[in-house]
Amino acid sequence: MAIPDLYSRDVSYSEIACVTVLTWDVLLMFSDEVELVWRRAWTPAKYMYFIARYVPWTVQLSLLAINVDGSTGLRFTAEQCAAWEVVQAILLQFIVSTVDVILVMRVYALYGKSRALLGVLGALFVAEIAFLCYVLARVTPRLTFNDECFVTSSPPIFQYYWIVSLLFETLLFALTMYKFLEAVHQGWGKRPVMQQFVTDGTWAYALIFVVMLINMMMYKYVHSTLTGICYTWLMVVLSFAGSRLVLNPRRPSMPDEAEPFTNSSHIELTRVST
Q1: What torsion, rounded to 10 degrees, do the Cα atoms 223, 229, 231, 234 define?
Q2: 133 by DSSP, 3-state: which?
Q3: With contact defined as beta carbons under 8 Å apart, do 151 and 184 qualify?
């Protein structure tokens, strides 16, 4: 608790920037959201959209309310900071898991709703979640922070949280690209639905990968208040990507049900993955 907080202002300004960007994005997409999500029946995809879109925003707003450059005058005990770090860890895992489920269901749809593939990915997903929860349980009690509850250092084991997350994301992306290359070889890879599917998957993977990698490097090598400065940017990226992975296949330019890619399989984007 005695670690100086020389960079608290920078972290606070970063949090303000995150809230601003995410609020702008929510307002920007709200009309599409009403038309493509809220006017439709409640489905698992609708719940996942709500989590991916609004839980990160709520977390951002709560962080902003707790401390903005010390202007709130709030100070916390070590026990209070520890409790708040546990809450943030749980929320982070909840959001990451939700976006992973969206990505898994997209791959499941892409492979013609293969139950065998879903079983393998489901088992890997459960194993991933179990390992990540174990890492967070080990890491959270060993975090250090200042009086404003900004993390100042983390134990080395935390890097494995990011490594395993990146490996799972990379597996899903590799499966998407494999099916795309197969589609190109078979002559249907240029169809609009496939192009949209691959485009969304590529930029979402790239964004999430880069921000997770930066977080891993910051937590591993930075030992000051700047350690966790990219945590809130990960929230922004997960909200931005997760919501669009649900919304984009539902846009009017996309068919309600994708054209058949083979004689026996369909990518039912609006009914399966979204």
Answers
A1: -130
A2: helix
A3: no
CA distances from 59 to 63, 103, 112, 231, 239 (A): 6, 22, 36, 11, 11
CB atoms near residue 271 (< 10 Å): 15
Of 243, 245, 216, the C-alpha closest to 231 is 216
Of 268, 12, 2, 243, nearest in space to 146 by CA = 2
**Phi then psi dihedrals of residue 165, to 5 deg:** -60, -45
Q: Which residue has the tokens 């993955």?
A: 273
Q: How far apart are CA 127 and CA 118, in angstroms?
A: 14
> Cα–Cα distance between 65 and 5 in angstroms, integer?
19
**What pTM did the predictor assign?**
0.85
What would the pLDDT profile of 65-83 be if each residue is shown by its tens digit? 766 555 555 667 778 888 8
Segments in the chain below pLDDT 70: 1-6, 66-75, 189, 252-274
- Residue given tokens 């990518």 in the structure block: 267
